[in-house]
Amino acid sequence: MSRGVLVTGASRGIGRAVATAFAARGDRIAVHYGHRAADAEETLKALPGEGHVLIGGDLADPEAARKIADAAEAGLGGVDVLVNNAAVATSPETAHPVAGVSYADWQRIWRRTVDVNLLGAANLSYCVARHLIGRGVPGRIVNIGSRGAFKGEPDHPAYGASKAALHALGQSLAVSLAPHGISVTSVAPGFTATERVAARIDDDLRAQSPFGRVGTPEEVAAAVVYLASAEATWASGAILDLNGASHLRM
Ligand SMILES: NC(=O)c1ccc[n+]([C@@H]2O[C@H](COP(=O)([O-])OP(=O)(O)OC[C@H]3O[C@@H](n4cnc5c(N)ncnc54)[C@H](OP(=O)(O)O)[C@@H]3O)[C@@H](O)[C@H]2O)c1
């Protein structure tokens, strides 16, 4: 059965791969983007199947988050699956090691990171869950977290903290939304070869995993599709490591 799937941050990278994987199994996708409209158009055009829609909006803005959820609900005829993928990720521009950043930049980067990575996902989860509860149908929320929540992000502490909080948000919602038939899970990918990080991949990064390589967006997407399946309902509350045994949690 075709489901409505809202994938945030699907203009490229992991979001694009997730959108493609759901579309390949016959789902209708709301391809969300922040400011890369042309790239998001490319994602949309390349999707197999039909009934897909394109939705832009800055997730740092709570009102925009509500509009994104409403537009996806209307455009898809109901959102059954939400994938919280969009994030302010690690990059030279967002680096903020304590010893090397001004107090003003420290605050600016923390605020932006938390606004998008945590509050954006929390607001969308609220809006989508309320639509599901209102329609009286089951649903799935899958968060794209990060290995960095467990391993630490010394140059991007706001990012690591926001992903730890996202995992925790998912676990709280897994409990509160289960009575409504909504499962909530997270994946915690390690280094994954997306456009954003392509130039940074070197032998040291590959050597983090005993497989001698980094992950692929398609590997993350396959796990997300599984966690959003009816068969994975019992995984609700889980945080699934996808890091090629590069970091083992005890
Ligand atoms: N790649 C990795 O190694 C890795 C590892 C662990 C976890 N992850 C996680 O996987 C997810 C995707 O990573 P990626 O490498 O594919 O990143 P990416 O290429 O930088 O994609 C990030 C996406 O988020 C969107 N976005 C960013 N800020 C936004 C905002 N304020 N409002 C709306 N959308 C916004 C971007 O939209 P626009 O481009 O249209 O602005 C883009 O589509 C992220 O949650 C990241 O933390 C990635």
Automatic annotation (TrEMBL):
The keyword Oxidoreductase applies. The lineage of its organism: Bacteria, Bacillati, Actinomycetota, Actinomycetes, Pseudonocardiales. Pfam families: adh_short_C2 (PF13561). The keyword Metal-binding does not apply. Gene3D superfamilies: NAD(P)-binding Rossmann-like Domain (3.40.50.720). Belongs to the short-chain dehydrogenases/reductases (SDR) family. GO terms for molecular function: oxidoreductase activity. Coiled coil: none annotated. Keywords: Oxidoreductase. It comes from Amycolatopsis rifamycinica. It comes from the Bacteria. This is 3-oxoacyl-ACP reductase.
